[in-house]
Amino acid sequence: MNAISPPTSGDTPATAAPGWLPMLHAAMLQLAAALSPSVYTPEVRHAVASRICSAAAQAAPRFLLLTGLLSQVIVHIVVVTAQSYGLSQFALSMVIRVLVVELLPLAAALFVALRLGADTADASVGQYRDGLAGVVSRFVLVIVLATGSGAIALVIGYLSVYGVTPWGFDAFTRTVGQVFDPLVLMALALKTLLFAASVATLSGTTRLFALLIAVESLLLVAEFF
């Protein structure tokens, strides 16, 4: 009787799970180092500040411009479609929900991951400092881009619905308050922080994308159910 050879590492899905463990362990170590005040010597603080400014100067204008144009297109389509069906009162809340809460944080995370990539660091002081600066800068940049693009989308939504007038501000703030109830605010803050931590510490586009989608899906399930 022929012996049956044991399965190789690529034969079963169960063996793929350990491949995530070293990656997650390294990500936790990087995140713990980034959150430890003791590592922020004057040289590290200078490197971190320089990297944040450089990354923001490279990424923020392009991303905010692109998301502003995308928001304008989406808002226009939603508003015109809603008005044609007599549902204009729901158009703004729908736009805020789709853009600010769902799409823009994910877009910010993907943009930073693809634009800046991930730093690798060896044991030397200079490489460690530069690697830590890269982690912190990516973390901060995801939050900045998600917040900035969300603010721009809100402004575009207001101008598209009410025009250049202050008279719609009361109705606008009521709509925004109805969308951003405590549960949605908590979900948005948690999502943005998890996206920022994932982009800051993980390398590999496929695994990072899978983790971002998993976070988005889990928060959607928790929010609606």
Give a short overview.
It contains seven helices and no strands. It is mainly alpha-helical and 225 residues long. It has one domain.
What does this structure look like?
- The radius of gyration is 21 Å and the shape is elongated.
- It is built from seven helices and no strands.
- The protein is mainly alpha-helical.
- The protein starts with 16 loop residues before the first helix and ends with a helix.
- The protein has one domain (40-224).
Series of H and E elements: HHHHHHH
* Fraction of residues in helix: over 70%
Number of helices: 7
User: Rg from C-alpha positions?
Assistant: 21 Å
Q: Report the strand count.
A: 0
Output the structural class. Answer: mainly alpha
Annotation keywords:
225 residues; 7 helices; mainly alpha; disordered N terminus
Topology:
Layout: H1 17-34, H2 42-84, H3 88-116, H4 125-162, H5 169-179, H6 182-201, H7 205-224
